[in-house]
C-alpha cells in the first residue's frame, strides 16, 4: 500500500519495533535482532525494488546511467507492476550459466529464445560476456533437440558463426541512440524454418489483451539457409 499511496518510503515502524525488542527479548537475543533490523532498515527488498523501478523509468532507455532533464510522473507506470505480476505468476526464474540451463530444459518441443549481449557491444552490459561465451552459446544451441531462436546484432562474426542456422535480417528503431530516426541492424537466428510454422507470423505483445504490434513495422529478410551459401 505504501508503494502506491506515495512516492517515498519511511521506516515508520522501525523505532517501535526496536522498543519491543527491549521488552520481549533477552539481552543477547535483543542485540542480535536489533543489529539485523538496523542493517536491513536502510534498504529492504521492497524499497530496493521500488528504487530500481524508479531508476529504470527515470533513465534514458532504462539503462540507469543517462537521465533526461524533464519530469516523469512515476505513478503513471504503476499498472505495469500488476501486469508483470500476473504475467510472471507461473514463471520460474533461474540464475545460472546458460549452458547448464539450456541442457537442463532441452527436450523435443521445447523452445529457447536467447538474447545474449551483442557482439563487440559487451561494454554496454553490466556483465562480462567474452568472445568464448558467444562460441559456447552457439555450440550448445547447435546440439539442442528443441526449437531455438537467437537475436543478435548484424556483424560478420555472428553471420559466420551461425552458418548451420537460418538467419533473418531486420532493422528496428535504435532506442539507445539519442539521434532521431536512428536504426539498428539485427539478426534473428533459428534452427528451424519459421516460414513453415502455423499461424500468420504476427508479433504479439507480452501482456494478454493488449493490441498486437503493427504489422507495417515487421519486416524480416531471409539472408541465409543452412547448407546454402550466404
UniProtKB/TrEMBL annotation:
Keyword S-adenosyl-L-methionine: yes
Keyword Translocase set for record: no
GO terms of biological process kind: DNA restriction-modification system; methylation; mismatch repair
Cited InterPro entries: MeTrfase_D12 (IPR012327), SAM-dependent_MTases_sf (IPR029063)
Keywords: Methyltransferase, S-adenosyl-L-methionine, Transferase
GO molecular function, one term: site-specific DNA-methyltransferase (adenine-specific) activity
This protein's name: DNA adenine methylase
Amino acid at each position: 500500500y505504501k508503494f502506491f499511496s506515495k512516492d517515498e518510503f519511511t521506516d515508520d515502524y522501525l523505532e517501535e519495533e526496536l522498543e519491543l525488542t527491549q521488552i520481549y527479548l533477552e539481552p543477547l537475543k535483543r542485540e542480535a535482532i536489533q543489529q539485523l533490523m538496523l542493517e536491513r532498515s536502510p534498504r529492504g527488498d521492497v524499497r530496493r525494488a521500488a528504487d530500481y523501478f524508479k531508476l529504470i523509468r527515470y533513465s534514458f532507455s532504462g539503462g540507469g546511467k543517462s537521465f533526461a532533464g524533464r519530469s516523469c510522473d512515476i505513478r503513471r507506470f504503476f499498472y505495469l507492476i500488476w501486469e508483470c505480476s500476473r504475467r510472471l505468476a507461473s514463471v520460474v526464474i533461474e540464475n545460472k550459466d546458460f549452458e547448464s540451463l539450456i541442457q537442463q530444459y532441452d527436450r523435443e518441443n521445447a523452445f529457447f529464445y536467447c538474447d545474449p549481449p551483442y557482439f563487440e557491444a559487451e561494454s554496454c552490459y553490466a556483465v562480462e560476456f567474452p568472445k568464448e561465451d558467444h562460441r559456447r552459446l552457439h555450440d550448445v544451441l547447435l546440439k539442442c533437440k528443441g526449437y531455438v531462436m537467437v537475436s543478435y546484432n548484424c556483424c560478420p562474426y555472428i553471420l559466420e558463426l551461425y552458418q548451420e542456422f537460418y538467419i533473418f535480417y531486420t532493422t528496428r528503431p535504435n532506442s539507445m541512440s539519442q539521434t532521431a530516426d536512428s536504426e539498428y541492424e539485427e539478426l534473428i537466428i533459428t534452427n528451424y524454418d519459421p516460414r513453415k510454422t502455423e499461424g500468420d507470423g504476427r508479433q504479439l505483445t507480452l501482456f494478454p489483451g493488449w493490441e498486437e504490434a503493427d504489422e507495417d513495422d515487421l519486416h524480416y529478410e531471409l539472408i541465409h539457409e543452412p547448407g546454402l551459401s550466404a
